[in-house]
Design goal:
Structural class: alpha+beta
Largest sheet: 4 strands, antiparallel
Strand content: 5-15%
Pfam families: DUF7531 (PF24375)
Number of domains: 1
Helix content: 25-40%
Number of helices: 9
Shape: globular
Region (Disordered): 253-282
Radius of gyration: 18 Å
Number of strands: 10
Amino acid sequence: MDVNCEGCAGCCIDWRAIAPTASDHERRGPRKPLDGSYNLVPLTREDVISFLDAGLADALTPRLWEDESGVEIDGVELAAIDGKPVFFVGIRKPPKPVAPFETEPAWLPTCAFLDPKTLQCRIHDEDVYPQECAEYPGHNLKLGQQTECERVESAFGGERLLDDEPPDALSGLLLGPQAIGQKLFVYPDPEKLEGVVSRLLAGELTDDDRARFVAAAVAGRPGTTETNPETDETVLDEVRTSDSWVGRSITDWEAMVKNEEPDPSVATRVEDERGAPPTPGW
């Protein structure tokens, strides 16, 4: 895709707080996400395994949805298949000091892998780069949906989407039943989510909460709602020990947003010095 990303990263940042008008495009449709994350990228099972193998599982987080015909946990009706809550796995978006679209620096929810200084992805050329990110905004164009590039153009001007023809070599969109076990996962033990759902609604998920969903996604059998319990247990133990530069930097970002002025250069100390991959710059 031919897009102009310099100084933008609109698809990686929740920029609604600095937008001239409100946007609710993610909150339309019959099912409302329980979390408040904007443009959460749905990872494939292969993506999740890649993050796990790279020791970056602590960068991942789940998304669940409300559904009146689903299963009730913590007083919330959740979308479910065969009584098992369904979920995506995405990348966490901690607050970071960023200045997209030539604006002044501000604390905005930002992809855990985006460098606040260059506004470039730290894993763009790595094996863990998600399939959805690699093909963006091709899937939107294929489905006739507005892209984040176009939303940025409308809000801040300029040209971001330079080619509106979706590429021929797109991977499968994984919609409907074919997504089960590949992009849409089921949690095998609903009763174990008691308390977790309340924390998700409050934006207070713990590392252990997130680990449970990563393990369930990896342990799922593609094309089915079945889960391999041995794999689930093994992966859960592995994710619980994750301690990457990402997880440690998120802890710092969440503490700093409360009482520090936004300064993108602080990323050198918070991320780079912890081993975050560099970006080439523009």
